[in-house]
Amino acid sequence: MGDEAVGGKAAAGMTRAVVSPMAYRSEHKPTWCPGCGDFGVLNAIYRTMADLQARPENFVIVSGIGCSSRLPEFVNAYGFHSVHGRLLPIATGIKLARPELEVLAVGGDGDGLAIGGNHFMHAARRNVDIAYVMMDNAVYGMTKGQPSPTSDMGMVTKASPYGVLEQPINPAALAIAFGATFVARGYSGKPRDLEALIVSAISHKGFAFVHVVSPCVTFLDAFDYWQANTVEVEAHDPEDRSEAFRLTSITDKTRLGVFYQREEETLDEKYKGLRDRALIAGRLKVEDFIREYQ
Prior knowledge:
This protein is an alpha/beta fold. Helices cover 34% and strands 17% of the residues. Helix 6 (191-203) links the parallel strand 7 (182-187) and strand 8 (208-213).
């Protein structure tokens, strides 16, 4: 895309052409089932990148395994399709090694809450400066519709013919408990609203989590249900952690929007401070260290 996209200072006297969302599409066409909710998320990401006028060479999308984790292939940016549940350690490593890059992690509910649940916890508590978009369809769509960690109790599938016995996980509440400094929920059926949430998540300094309700049309087609049962979150103080918990957990209708946001030093900032201290220490002589203990 070269000089058409911003992300650095333009040469004196020059202006850059505005880049459209279409410019962020890769040459590969999405391979999801027609009508999959993840199309809405993908289009929201295209529009987000256009809103930010992101340079593809400065933007990295990391995914795990699953239907939604195919997403990096469809975007004109750097991508890393990792192993099951390991997208967040890889995204963390990229951000620490190259803090100037914009890092977006994308994956599904099974990838992030089952095998990847441990990594979700630690990335959030470390406040790594990345955005994490979790596409939640409440099934393992790529492996024929088994129940996932967010499936409702009683849900009947081929793998649970007598209904799911476990309580579903609430990803947004979990992110707040883990220590994420930005937590929001969106719906793939409302891509413009979702676009605004992802822009805010990427712009946030710290670990930003966006839980996206993204229905599977093949194994759990719930678009009509979500259209009728999602509402905008009530106005509240986003720094009030207790209120954020309450709003993520209301069961009459599912709230969409930003629940929680606060500023805190990020892991990459802490590592920079550590590197600076190490560089100073590296210039000291052995005698200087010995003198400290005399």
